[in-house]
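quick one, 134 residues, struct below
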Amino acid sequence: MKDETNKLVYLVEDDSDDQEILVAAIHQINPGIRMQVFENGREFMNRIGEENSHDEPSLIILDYNLPYYTGAEVLKKLNTLHRLKGIPKVIWSTASDYLTRYECISSGASNYYEKPYNVSGYYQLAANMLGYII
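---
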Protein backbone atom coordinates (compact mmCIF):
# COMPACT_ATOMS: atom_id res chain seq x y z
CA MET A 1 0.00 0.00 0.00
CA LYS A 2 1.24 3.45 -0.79
CA ASP A 3 2.02 5.87 2.01
CA GLU A 4 -0.86 8.30 2.46
CA THR A 5 -0.26 11.24 4.74
CA ASN A 6 -2.97 13.65 5.78
CA LYS A 7 -5.52 10.83 6.11
CA LEU A 8 -7.44 11.03 9.36
CA VAL A 9 -9.25 8.04 10.86
CA TYR A 10 -11.69 8.34 13.75
CA LEU A 11 -11.85 5.32 16.03
CA VAL A 12 -14.76 5.17 18.48
CA GLU A 13 -13.91 2.37 20.93
CA ASP A 14 -14.26 2.13 24.69
CA ASP A 15 -11.88 -0.80 25.24
CA SER A 16 -8.33 0.49 25.66
CA ASP A 17 -6.74 -2.81 24.58
CA ASP A 18 -8.73 -2.83 21.33
CA GLN A 19 -7.82 0.82 20.78
CA GLU A 20 -4.13 0.17 21.27
CA ILE A 21 -3.93 -2.95 19.12
CA LEU A 22 -5.97 -1.57 16.20
CA VAL A 23 -4.09 1.76 16.17
CA ALA A 24 -0.75 -0.12 16.20
CA ALA A 25 -1.92 -2.37 13.34
CA ILE A 26 -3.05 0.64 11.28
CA HIS A 27 0.26 2.41 11.88
CA GLN A 28 2.19 -0.74 10.99
CA ILE A 29 0.42 -0.74 7.62
CA ASN A 30 0.64 3.00 7.12
CA PRO A 31 2.48 5.20 9.63
CA GLY A 32 1.18 8.34 7.88
CA ILE A 33 -2.41 7.74 9.00
CA ARG A 34 -3.50 10.12 11.75
CA MET A 35 -5.78 8.59 14.37
CA GLN A 36 -8.20 10.27 16.72
CA VAL A 37 -9.73 8.01 19.36
CA PHE A 38 -13.02 8.58 21.15
CA GLU A 39 -14.06 6.55 24.20
CA ASN A 40 -17.83 6.62 23.69
CA GLY A 41 -20.60 7.57 21.31
CA ARG A 42 -21.54 10.78 23.11
CA GLU A 43 -17.99 12.16 23.09
CA PHE A 44 -17.71 11.33 19.39
CA MET A 45 -21.07 12.90 18.48
CA ASN A 46 -20.16 16.07 20.37
CA ARG A 47 -16.95 16.36 18.33
CA ILE A 48 -18.40 15.43 14.96
CA GLY A 49 -21.34 17.76 15.47
CA GLU A 50 -19.08 20.80 15.54
CA GLU A 51 -19.98 22.78 12.43
CA ASN A 52 -16.57 24.45 12.17
CA SER A 53 -14.64 21.19 11.89
CA HIS A 54 -12.14 21.67 9.05
CA ASP A 55 -10.39 18.35 9.50
CA GLU A 56 -12.90 15.75 8.37
CA PRO A 57 -12.00 12.07 8.69
CA SER A 58 -11.37 9.80 5.73
CA LEU A 59 -12.75 6.79 7.65
CA ILE A 60 -14.86 6.29 10.77
CA ILE A 61 -14.49 3.04 12.74
CA LEU A 62 -17.16 2.38 15.36
CA ASP A 63 -17.44 -0.31 17.98
CA TYR A 64 -21.00 -1.61 18.18
CA ASN A 65 -21.19 -1.87 21.98
CA LEU A 66 -20.39 1.69 23.04
CA PRO A 67 -21.40 3.59 26.16
CA TYR A 68 -24.30 6.05 25.65
CA TYR A 69 -25.04 5.13 22.00
CA THR A 70 -24.54 1.88 20.11
CA GLY A 71 -22.57 1.98 16.90
CA ALA A 72 -25.84 1.66 14.95
CA GLU A 73 -27.33 4.62 16.82
CA VAL A 74 -24.25 6.68 16.01
CA LEU A 75 -24.59 5.71 12.33
CA LYS A 76 -28.19 6.92 12.28
CA LYS A 77 -27.11 10.25 13.77
CA LEU A 78 -24.25 10.54 11.25
CA ASN A 79 -26.75 10.06 8.42
CA THR A 80 -28.25 13.45 9.33
CA LEU A 81 -24.93 15.23 8.72
CA HIS A 82 -24.69 15.86 4.99
CA ARG A 83 -20.96 16.63 5.06
CA LEU A 84 -20.22 13.06 6.19
CA LYS A 85 -22.28 11.22 3.55
CA GLY A 86 -19.31 10.17 1.42
CA ILE A 87 -17.10 9.04 4.30
CA PRO A 88 -16.90 5.27 4.81
CA LYS A 89 -18.14 4.13 8.21
CA VAL A 90 -17.42 0.63 9.47
CA ILE A 91 -18.58 -1.21 12.56
CA TRP A 92 -16.52 -3.77 14.43
CA SER A 93 -17.79 -5.84 17.29
CA THR A 94 -17.60 -9.08 19.19
CA ALA A 95 -21.25 -9.66 18.25
CA SER A 96 -21.52 -12.14 15.41
CA ASP A 97 -25.28 -12.46 15.08
CA TYR A 98 -27.12 -11.67 11.88
CA LEU A 99 -29.51 -9.13 13.44
CA THR A 100 -26.71 -6.90 14.76
CA ARG A 101 -24.91 -7.06 11.43
CA TYR A 102 -28.14 -6.28 9.56
CA GLU A 103 -28.95 -3.35 11.87
CA CYS A 104 -25.54 -1.81 11.21
CA ILE A 105 -25.53 -2.29 7.45
CA SER A 106 -29.09 -0.98 7.14
CA SER A 107 -28.09 2.03 9.29
CA GLY A 108 -25.38 3.01 6.82
CA ALA A 109 -22.26 1.01 7.68
CA SER A 110 -19.99 0.32 4.72
CA ASN A 111 -19.10 -2.98 6.36
CA TYR A 112 -19.38 -4.95 9.59
CA TYR A 113 -16.37 -6.78 11.00
CA GLU A 114 -16.08 -9.18 13.88
CA LYS A 115 -13.25 -8.38 16.27
CA PRO A 116 -10.37 -10.80 15.88
CA TYR A 117 -9.13 -13.11 18.60
CA ASN A 118 -5.41 -12.69 17.92
CA VAL A 119 -2.94 -9.97 16.97
CA SER A 120 -2.45 -11.20 13.40
CA GLY A 121 -6.22 -10.93 12.95
CA TYR A 122 -6.04 -7.25 13.90
CA TYR A 123 -3.48 -6.63 11.18
CA GLN A 124 -5.73 -8.24 8.54
CA LEU A 125 -8.73 -6.34 9.86
CA ALA A 126 -6.81 -3.04 9.73
CA ALA A 127 -5.78 -3.76 6.14
CA ASN A 128 -9.40 -4.45 5.19
CA MET A 129 -10.60 -1.25 6.86
CA LEU A 130 -7.87 0.88 5.30
CA GLY A 131 -8.84 -0.51 1.90
CA TYR A 132 -11.62 2.09 1.92
CA ILE A 133 -9.18 4.98 1.89
CA ILE A 134 -5.82 3.86 0.47
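The longest strand covers residues 8-12.
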